[in-house]
Write a structure and sequence with these properties.
The chain is of the alpha/beta class. 25% of the residues lie in helices and 18% in strands. It is built from 9 helices and 12 strands.
Length: 317
């Protein structure tokens, strides 16, 4: 496959990681039909062949957006074994959580070897790590690193009204007090390469999808309920999001300006367009990004590939 949309040699500068939410896919990490294959297939250009020429170096386990998808201790132990056998480093991804969730995460942190990365998305979890698990390596997650990422933005002028805050010296100082040396971000709509330049931190970028927002309510999980029982944050969860997602469209997008977007569980995501891919690869080439995180699961289902342009309506789903 010809390299498209990336400077020559850009891929060699970045570590490749694969993110897995559903522990049942762990045994397939080394198989052609497993999450690694899916991650490479959906990767931004230079796409599968170019990324496959670089060994995957890291497994991201867990979910950043829902406490009900926190892995069990058994799943984490299995992932540690799979990563060790495959020669992969391990990162545990965690969501923002209430107090009960902190107890779950405390049990998991006790199982992690010293030096293991833990991606944190709220300050309570970060405080827990700092106080009780100083041998672990905290990473600022995408929900701590705020950006305006509305897939409906019509032009770059709207995006520039609220530039990314990660480069703020005050914010970097706060992260530094907690020993954070790495941050994870998305590529925002209408991104410039310099939007992905952070002076004092190593930077991981998720591709080819970014998250726009998350909430407490799971749309997919509410479909089996009636009336007032729908769309409640306390409803029972069957982890429907591991199997189902829905395309986001709106009739008002008459000029096809919206980015392609979809909802998975309680979160909405968008697909990078060609300009965002180019900005990401140029930031990689400049050494501002040193890790690319690809989704092995919990991503866009195959609604029909559209090449990652601006919104293309495939009809209702």
């Amino acid at each position: 496959m010809a390299v498209s949309g990336a400077p020559a040699g850009a891929i060699v500068h970045a570590e490749i990681a694969v993110a897995v939410t559903d522990g049942r896919t762990l045994p397939g990490l080394a198989l052609d039909a497993g999450p690694l294959f899916d991650a490479l297939r959906l990767a931004p250009p230079p796409s599968a062949d170019g990324l496959a020429s670089r060994p995957v170096g890291r497994l991201h386990l867990g979910n950043e957006f829902c406490e009900r998808l926190i892995p069990s201790p058994t799943m984490l132990k299995r992932a540690i074994g799979v990563a060790d056998a495959a020669g992969l480093a391990l990162t545990l991804a965690t969501p923002s959580v209430p107090d009960a969730g902190l107890a779950k995460l405390r049990r998991l942190f006790r199982l992690l070897p010293d030096g293991t990365e833990a991606v944190v998305n709220d300050y309570g979890v970060l405080r827990l790590l700092s106080r009780e698990f100083p041998a672990l390596e905290p990473v600022a997650g995408r929900q701590l690193c705020k950006m305006i990422k509305d897939p409906r933005l019509p032009n770059e002028q709207w995006a520039r009204l609220n530039p990314p805050g990660l480069g703020s010296p005050v914010f970097e100082d706060i992260l530094g007090r907690f020993g954070i040396r790495r941050a994870e971000v998305d590529v925002p709509p209408f991104a410039r390469p310099t939007d992905l330049k952070v002076g004092g931190l190593a930077l991981s970028v998720h591709a080819p999808f970014g998250y726009a927002l998350r909430g407490r309510v799971c749309r997919i999980g509410s479909l089996r309920f009636d009336g007032a029982a729908k769309f409640r944050p306390d409803q029972a969860c069957r982890k429907e999001c591991l199997r189902y997602a829905c395309r986001q469209t709106r009739p008002a997008d008459r000029d096809n300006c919206d980015l392609e977007s979809f909802q998975r569980g309680n979160s909405i995501f968008y697909r990078h367009d060609a300009g965002m891919r180019d900005a990401m690869w140029r930031a990689v080439e400049n050494g501002w990004i040193d890790r690319i995180v690809l989704p092995g699961d919990w991503r866009e289902p195959d609604f029909g590939e559209t090449g990652g342009g601006r919104h293309a309506d495939h009809g209702p789903h």
